[in-house]
Specification:
By secondary structure, this protein is mostly helical. It is 59% helix and 0% strand. It has two domains: 55 residues, no CATH class; 52 residues, no CATH class. The protein is built from six helices and no strands. Helix 3 packs antiparallel against helix 4, helix 3 packs across helix 5 and helix 4 packs across helix 5. The longest helix has 19 residues.
Length: 120
C-alpha cells in the first residue's frame, strides 16, 4: 500500500485518488480533464490489470474484484468514523452509506468471530 501511495503522489500529487482514471492505452494515469469516454477507459483498465496480473504471476482478477477487496478491507480495518469516511471518499463515494451498503457484508467466518468476541 505504501508503494502504491507513493506512485499516486508522484504521478497525481497528494490529492490523487487511489483509483484514478487511466489513459486510453492503460499505461499511465489520465489527468482529470483528459479522461475520455467510459468504454475506452474500462477496456484500458481491464487490459492494464491483465498485464499486471500476468507480470505478477497471479491469476487475472477483474478491476471490480480488486476494488471490492479494497472496499471490504477498508470497512474491516476502519477504527473510527473518520477513517471510514477517508476510505469512502478515496473510493469516490460522496455518501459513506454507499460504501457501507456495498462493502460491509461480513463473511460467515467473520460473523462467527464477532459473535464469539474474536478480533478480526
Amino acid at each position: 500500500m505504501k508503494e502504491w501511495y507513493q506512485i499516486i503522489i508522484n504521478e497525481l500529487g497528494a490529492e490523487g485518488l487511489w483509483y484514478p482514471a487511466l489513459s486510453t492505452d492503460g499505461l499511465r494515469f489520465a489527468k482529470q480533464e483528459n479522461i475520455g469516454d467510459i468504454d475506452s477507459r474500462n477496456k484500458s483498465l481491464r487490459d492494464g490489470v491483465k498485464r499486471l496480473c500476468y507480470r505478477a504471476g497471479i491469476p487475472y482478477r477483474s478491476p471490480h474484484k480488486f476494488r471490492r477487496g479494497h472496499g471490504v478491507y477498508a470497512v474491516k480495518k476502519s477504527r473510527n468514523l473518520e477513517e471510514f469516511q477517508a476510505y469512502s471518499q478515496n473510493m469516490g463515494h460522496e455518501d459513506p452509506g454507499t460504501t457501507f451498503k456495498y462493502y460491509s457484508k461480513l463473511a460467515n467466518n467473520d460473523v462467527r468471530d464477532v459473535i464469539l468476541g474474536k478480533n478480526f
